[in-house]
Specification:
The chain has about 180 residues and is α+β, with helices and mostly antiparallel strands. It folds into two domains: about 55 residues, no CATH class; about 110 residues, no CATH class. Helices cover about 40% and strands about 25% of the residues. Strands 4-5-6-7-8 form a five-stranded mixed sheet. A three-stranded antiparallel sheet has the order 3-9-10, with no helix packed on it. It starts with a helix and ends with a strand.
């Protein structure tokens, strides 16, 4: 029952988004006649930044090298889980542009960044989480057993334009359907 309600909720959100876009494209010509611009494609990108969590309090007594390994494993695991959760809960998002900041609140270094496409995220499933993220285009600087903040040259690069979802638009309002 919960799965059915969840799918219904997703369908309602998708319909709301489509209707909102179409209403915005319904422009007036000299306030006399309502014309509609034909929707050809749309893409939604979420830009999000989060701070990495520190290791579990039980692991804080470990030797520094072992604690560093635990922290790196946790950051990779948390990143994959966050992306998975965001794509699952926000089906209208085609891409997620994210940054992971250092654990220390006093520092603002970026440990990891990437622009991840939904289709690619669901297509790549290698055994290693770091390899999966690297194949998805995520940038990080793993030095030995430590994640080092990214150089500013990596942070200034602009992500490529979104591919978009294409919709048929022969019938302006009610007949808009996705073709894939």
């Amino acid at each position: 029952m919960a799965r059915v309600l969840n799918r219904l909720g997703l369908a309602v959100r998708e319909a709301w988004l489509r209707r909102s876009i179409l209403q915005a494209l319904a422009v007036s010509r000299y306030e006399v006649r309502s014309d509609t611009l034909r929707l050809m494609s749309r893409s939604c990108r979420l830009a999000i930044t989060w701070r990495a969590r520190n290791v579990h309090p039980w692991d804080r007594d470990l030797a520094p090298d072992r604690r560093a390994v635990k922290l790196v494993e946790q950051i990779f695991s948390d990143t994959q889980a966050a992306l998975d959760g965001l794509f699952a809960r926000l089906p209208e998002m085609d891409e997620i542009d994210f940054k992971v900041l250092e654990v220390d609140e006093g520092r603002s270094g970026v440990l990891m960044k990437g622009l991840v496409n939904r289709k690619e995220f669901h297509a790549w499933h290698p055994a290693s989480i770091p390899m999966r993220l690297r194949l998805l285009g995520v940038t990080y600087n793993l030095v030995g057993s430590h994640l080092e903040p990214l150089d500013s040259s990596f942070l200034e690069a602009q992500p490529p334009a979104a591919e978009g979802r294409f919709w048929k638009s022969d019938e302006p309002h009610e007949g808009v359907r996705r073709t894939h």
